[in-house]
Amino acid sequence: MLDDKRNQIIAAALRRFSHFGIAKTSMSEIADDMKLSKANLYYYFQDKFALIEAIAYQIMDESDLAVKQALEEIPNTLDMLIRLLDIKKEYLEKYYMLIINLHEMNMNEERWIALSKGMLQRETEVISKIFDRGIKRNELVTFDVSSTSELYVAIMRGLAMFCDHTIPHALVDKEELDSIIEKQKQAATIFINGIKKTDK
Amino acid sequence: MLDDKRNQIIAAALRRFSHFGIAKTSMSEIADDMKLSKANLYYYFQDKFALIEAIAYQIMDESDLAVKQALEEIPNTLDMLIRLLDIKKEYLEKYYMLIINLHEMNMNEERWIALSKGMLQRETEVISKIFDRGIKRNELVTFDVSSTSELYVAIMRGLAMFCDHTIPHALVDKEELDSIIEKQKQAATIFINGIKKTDK
DNA sequence: GTTTGACTATTTTTAAAAATTGGTCAAAAG
DNA sequence: CTTTTGACCAATTTTTAAAAATAGTCAAAC
Predict the structure, then answer these.
(1) In A, residues 114-133, which contact B (CB 8 Å cutoff)?
(2) Averaged pLDDT for residues A13-19
(3) How far is the C-alpha of A53 from the C-alpha of B23, rounded, in Å?
(4) Distance separating alpha carbons of residues A102 and A126, to the nearest angstrom
């Protein structure tokens, strides 16, 4: 019952956050949407950050599920990484503003840094899993999986940040997103080629 | 004589720009340093942008010279790319604030966009030259040099932007710079491995 | 266990005044 | 003809203080 209402609030907040972003959504607005008083909202979430965190984890869990399914379906390493990029794209389109906000976070407060690091780590762990499997399948050479995964994630994130930096804009539109994903796929291809066993 | 004074002004401006950044350096300050009136400064450079542009091109030319020399000394592709990163590091340390500013430019004005694109293109052309040579030397497989160079530059720039994004800061210190260069070198290694001919 | 209205303390927005800055020009100096 | 300058302007940025919005609290009610 309590969890049920918490989930309802999360859903309501998610709608606003993913549309208008975190900063431009006030707790009062969320409370109004739910037809609760603000004080009541604070009964369910100790503060705004707790709500954001709950949403972030929900999205991550949801995404992890899609990744897990893909992992079972796609044995090839490169194919899997490409699928991963498509999944990420899906989520970015779905929760655009929220995800952008989560990536350009407030980095002055401990809890934000912790959340950011957690998200990065989770992303890196997925890549590690894929690389490990690739090594086990005798598809990739042996290498330091941990640091290489970190590098891979950094490259992908960097490409997303750099994107078409020469064109003035703050918000990324659909075309641009496509071009970013395209570059990421290209990079993934060369990256995997760089750590795969030489073709027999 | 006229060019001589222009160069003196460039040197004076460079000192301020590379220390305090472009925005925090006024034309009056530069004029004062040179013991000229501001109006006189505008006799030598039609506006602030012209001065910045002149400085940018001087640094690029200087850097290109170092690159040209390295190209003659280092035949191996990966070694050359690593050398290139070291050269870039040198220049970043030397002209820190200025280069940072040039990368996060005002992207709302045509001339800035043109300068930014020019810098990017120049960087990409150096990489193209290196890749072309690598192909000719039978070290690399044949591929679309133009788009691959663009991708390479995007990866390197992206890594620089992403860097240690989880730690709060605006200015990059020496340690961080080292860690960025390290990641860039790692990425270059895997990248080249991904496009090089399989070892015999 | 839930819900609320009334209440703070802190940020954020707003709007106007003050200061700075990029840039011009006619005229002077060499 | 080239170089230099002080006086000047328009536009932007910085500063400041008041107004509004916001995150978060709490005692009391349901």
Answers:
(1) 116-117, 120
(2) 95
(3) 37
(4) 19
At A108, is the secondary structure helix, strand, or coil?
coil
Whole-number average pLDDT of chain B: 92
Q: How far is the CA of B47 from the C1' of C26 (A)?
A: 20
pLDDT tens profile A166-195: 555 566 788 889 999 999 999 999 999 888
Cβ atoms < 10 Å from Cβ of B8: 14
Strand D–CB A49 distance below 7 A: yes
CB B34 within 8 A of CB B8: yes
Chain B environment of A118 (Cβ under 8 Å): none
Nucleotides of D under 7 A from a protein CB: 2-7, 21-27
CB distance B160 to B180 below 8 Å: yes
In the block, residue with structure tokens 């710079």: B177
CA dihedral B47, B48, B49, B55 (to 10 degrees): 120
Task: Name, in order, each residue with C-beta under 8 angstroms of A103's C-beta and a sequence gap of 6 or more.
Answer: none
Domains of chain A: 76-195 (1.10.357.10)
Instruction: Note the pLDDT tens digit of each residue in A139-158.
Output: 999 999 999 999 999 999 99
* pLDDT per position as a tens digit, A78-127: 999 999 999 999 999 999 889 988 887 776 788 999 999 999 999 999 99
Tokens describing residue B57: 């091109």
